[in-house]
Structures are given as structure tokens and as C-alpha cells.
């Protein structure tokens, strides 16, 4: 087992979505968002980011129900995978199956389980590295998957779950004077967050975020989406928590997707979490360039209730 890191998990691998309008979803992610098809069987398609060594960063599956199929995280080695699976099972967490060879692109060794909210989470190691390339100056396509934000009506419990079982560390918290604590930013490496937990009316995907090469590429990508008529929800701007840029758009099945860049890298020895007041305009957007955070933005971020809780995806 890896003993050089304080974290059980190394990084975010991919986010998998099931959607009713499969064709439009694929057209969006390949024709507009800038991802590349690496494998498909007609009803399931795996999409890679050109700058990422991950085999794929998004998986799209055709289904009558819209759901978050799973979120996948990497582990250092097979021993860590086995150790985590053993600890989860011993603590009463429901495993979908015991660790085994994975049958998805890149193979590897891993397992899936249900978190406290019923989402399917995958932990894997030894996945083959994909041949990738350096994203060039001016290319407005994702370098990699940056982070995922998850909605839950029980955020304190969910934050405690990921801290207890995987050692996720709190980087910052957003609060509102009337609504209390609203979002917890969690890290599993030096990046400010690879996961955030948001208070919402139901369990659902809040958004997935994709890192672009730099500010210029981020702005070019934002403009490309606007020119293509993709519905913008919020941005462009720069958050205070994480110090990253943001432009949020709606995919054809109503999931929020973000272009970002320059997410903060933290020093483990000196960083202390902040409690940030979300009602202060500079907390949500340091630049002051984004549209106001209002009921429309919040509603899109809540998403539809996830129809796949405590039911593992078929693939």
C-alpha cells in the first residue's frame, strides 16, 4: 500500500453519465465541448481529453432514465484498492462487487461501491496510460477533467463519509448568512479540490469541470460555446475558493458542465481552510464579470433528482 501520501486516493479519473437523448449528448461533447471518442459499442461511448493520460474522462450511456452512473477515482496500486475495499466492507458500506480486473478501456484493477447517498463510486489502479499530447497555445479544448461537485440534502454526512473512508481533506467551505454552510471543497491531492459537496434539495450531479490550458484558451473556449448557441448558466468569472476561473454551460440532457483553469495548488504544511461568505460578490466572482448568482443559476445547479441511487449501472 502507498505510504508516501496522506490520501487513500490519487486523483479523479472519470465521470459517467446515463442520458435519454444519447445522440445529442455525443454531438455536444465531441462537436462542441472538445472531447474525443476512444471506444463505443453503440449504446455506450467513452470520451477522452486530448491532454490527459486517462483512458477516458467522460462515459455516455443510453438509458431511458437520466442518472450519474458513477464517479471514478484512482488509487496508487492494487494493494490500496484491496485495503480500501476491505475497510469499506468491514464498516458496512455496500460493495457492488469485490475488487477484480476491470473490463472497461485501459483495464486495471478495481471495484465499485455505493456511497452514503447511493451514488456508485469506482476505485481503481493499474489502468493503462493513454497516449496523450500537449495541448498547444490557442487550443480551446479540455486538457483534463478537473473536479466534480455533488448535490445532497445531507452534506455534513457526505463530507464525513469521504473524510472517514478516504482521507479527503477540507480545503474551504462556502456559507451564506441565511442558509448556513452550503459547499465543502475536498481534496485528495495538492489540488484545491477534486470533489465538492453542495447542499441541495436532492441527490444529483451539481457539475463536472474541465481544465483548459490557460486563461486565453479558457476564454476562447467560453466564446466558442457562446457562438455555438450553447446555453450559458454562469460566468465567465473567477471564484475565490480555489482561485479558478469558471464558465458553466448546460449539456443537452440538463447537466451543468464547467470550463475552468488555474485551480489552486495547496501546500499541505501551511494551508488552513477558510469559511467564505457566499453573499459577498467577490467570493463567487473575484473579477465581477459573471452574471449574478440568482435562482436560475441555482436551479440549474440542483439538476434533476438522480434516478440511479443504490442501483449499479449495467456497464
UniProtKB/TrEMBL annotation:
<protein>
    <submittedName>
        <fullName>Oxidoreductase</fullName>
    </submittedName>
</protein>
<dbReference type="InterPro" id="IPR037523">
    <property type="entry name" value="VOC_core"/>
</dbReference>
<dbReference type="InterPro" id="IPR050383">
    <property type="entry name" value="GlyoxalaseI/FosfomycinResist"/>
</dbReference>
<dbReference type="InterPro" id="IPR004360">
    <property type="entry name" value="Glyas_Fos-R_dOase_dom"/>
</dbReference>
<dbReference type="Pfam" id="PF00903">
    <property type="entry name" value="Glyoxalase"/>
</dbReference>
<dbReference type="InterPro" id="IPR029068">
    <property type="entry name" value="Glyas_Bleomycin-R_OHBP_Dase"/>
</dbReference>
<feature type="domain" description="VOC">
    <location>
        <begin position="11"/>
        <end position="126"/>
    </location>
</feature>
<feature type="domain" description="VOC">
    <location>
        <begin position="144"/>
        <end position="262"/>
    </location>
</feature>
Amino acid at each position: 500500500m502507498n505510504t508516501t501520501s496522506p490520501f487513500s486516493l490519487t486523483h479523479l479519473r472519470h465521470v459517467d453519465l446515463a442520458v435519454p437523448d444519447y445522440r445529442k449528448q455525443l454531438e455536444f461533447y465531441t462537436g462542441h465541448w472538445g472531447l474525443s471518442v476512444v471506444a463505443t459499442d453503440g449504446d455506450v461511448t467513452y470520451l477522452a481529453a486530448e491532454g490527459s493520460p486517462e483512458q477516458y474522462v467522460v462515459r455516455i450511456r443510453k438509458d431511458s432514465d437520466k442518472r450519474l452512473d458513477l464517479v471514478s477515482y484512482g488509487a496508487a496500486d492494487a494493494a490500496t484498492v484491496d485495503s480500501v475495499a476491505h475497510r469499506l466492507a468491514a464498516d458496512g458500506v455496500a460493495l457492488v462487487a469485490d475488487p477484480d480486473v476491470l473490463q472497461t478501456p485501459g483495464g486495471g484493477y478495481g471495484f465499485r461501491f455505493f456511497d452514503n447517498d447511493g451514488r456508485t463510486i469506482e476505485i481503481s489502479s493499474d489502468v493503462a496510460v493513454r497516449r496523450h499530447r500537449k495541448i498547444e497555445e490557442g487550443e480551446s479544448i479540455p486538457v483534463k477533467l478537473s473536479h466534480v461537485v455533488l448535490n445532497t440534502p445531507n452534506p455534513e454526512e457526505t463530507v464525513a463519509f469521504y473524510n472517514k473512508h478516504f482521507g479527503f481533506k477540507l480545503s474551504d467551505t462556502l456559507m451564506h448568512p441565511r442558509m448556513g454552510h452550503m459547499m465543502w471543497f475536498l481534496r485528495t491531492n495538492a489540488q484545491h479540490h477534486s470533489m465538492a459537496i453542495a447542499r441541495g434539495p436532492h441527490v444529483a450531479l451539481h457539475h463536472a469541470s474541465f481544465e483548459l490550458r490557460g486563461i486565453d484558451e479558457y476564454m476562447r473556449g467560453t466564446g466558442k460555446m457562446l457562438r455555438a448557441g450553447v446555453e450559458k448558466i454562469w460566468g465567465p468569472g473567477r471564484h475565490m475558493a480555489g482561485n479558478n476561473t469558471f464558465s458553466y454551460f448546460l449539456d443537452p440532457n440538463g447537466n451543468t458542465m464547467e470550463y475552468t483553469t488555474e485551480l489552486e495548488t495547496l501546500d499541505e504544511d501551511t494551508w488552513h481552510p477558510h469559511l467564505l461568505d457566499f453573499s459577498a460578490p467577490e467570493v463567487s466572482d473575484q473579477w465581477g464579470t459573471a452574471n449574478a448568482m440568482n435562482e436560475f443559476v441555482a436551479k440549474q445547479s440542483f439538476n434533476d433528482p438522480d434516478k440511479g441511487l443504490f442501483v449499479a449501472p449495467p456497464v
